[in-house]
Amino acid sequence: MDIYEEMAKSVVELEMEKAKTLAQEAIDKEIPLLEAIEKGFGEGIKRVGDLWDAGEFFLPELMRGAQVMQEAIDIITPHLEESGVKRKTKGKIVMATIEGDIHTIGKTIVATMLKANGFEVIDLGADVKAETIIAEAEKQQANLIGVSALLTTTMMGQKKVTELLEQQGKRDKFKVILGGAPVTAKWVEECKADGYAENAVAAVTIAKNLLGLL
Ligand code: B12
Which superfamily, per CATH, for 3-84? Predict the structure, then answer.
């Protein structure tokens, strides 16, 4: 079994110690860390999601799976950042999961991937009001705002970000990108946002594109 499959399995089997050991192994053996996140632990949480969808996993398993994935990523992230620090900053992005929504995993992966690709990322966490996201983007003089939503009920908050920017006459100051499992290109268009990406690799491409770096 390759290490990515072992990583995925550790999340599905809710094996915290195993996941942490594998994360450390990836660092020690200089395995590409972004791939370890996407193809390994990220694949694992997707399978956990499928098991939840199929009614085979319940909330406690779901939460444990998320914790296992998060702790493994926490071990990897400082090493990713280490390799990224010496590069010139490509741009500054303020990221958050929108108000009412506590899903952090996808947003954190995107933030990690952007950092690893030379962006400066200010991660505001989850359950963040549109007003706060905008205020922070202004304070930080960011070029980009990234907003995640995993619930159909919280997606409206993404639209609120672009609407508020418009109302406040600040829409031209920032490029806004949206994402999260229920988000589609059509929804992004409806929100009058600037970009959509369905995964973290695409998020880096769209961010670079919007800042004219590609
Ligand atoms: C893990 C999980 C949880 C964990 C979250 C832990 C955490 N720290 O994040 C816990 C257990 C806490 C949880 C809670 C809940 N959850 Co939940 N959860 C999931 C699950 C299984 C996986 C989500 C995930 O992390 N996926 C893995 C990541 C890597 O994928 P991702 O988030 O899509 O991110 C990728 C892309 O979307 C994109 N992306 C993401 N964000 C952004 C942002 C930008 C700017 C860009 C460009 C791209 C981008 O890139 C990412 C990397 O590739 C999904 C099921 C599923 N199949 O998605 C349900 C799911 C999202 N949850 C759901 C629900 C209903 C809930 C609860 C309401 C359950 C409850 N009754 O309490 C609560 C929510 C409470 C709240 N107020 O938010 C539903 C949502 C239904 C809907 N359509 O609205 C889902 C779809 C499950 C289901 N089938 O019913 N959940």
Answer: Methionine synthase domain (1.10.1240.10)
Asked whether 49 lines ligand 1 (CB < 6 A), one says: yes
Q: What is the pTM of this model?
A: 0.83
| Per-residue pLDDT tens digits for 167-186 | 999 999 999 999 999 999 99
pLDDT tens digit string along 49-87? 889 889 999 878 888 888 898 899 889 988 876 655 444
- 8 Å CB contact between 96 and 129: no
CA 153 to ligand 1 centroid distance, Å: 12
Reply yes or no on whether the pLDDT at 208 is more than 60. yes
Q: Which atom of ligand 1 is nearest to the CA of 206?
A: 47
The domain ranges of the chain are 3-84, 92-210
Rounded to 5 degrees, φ, ψ at 213 are -100, 0
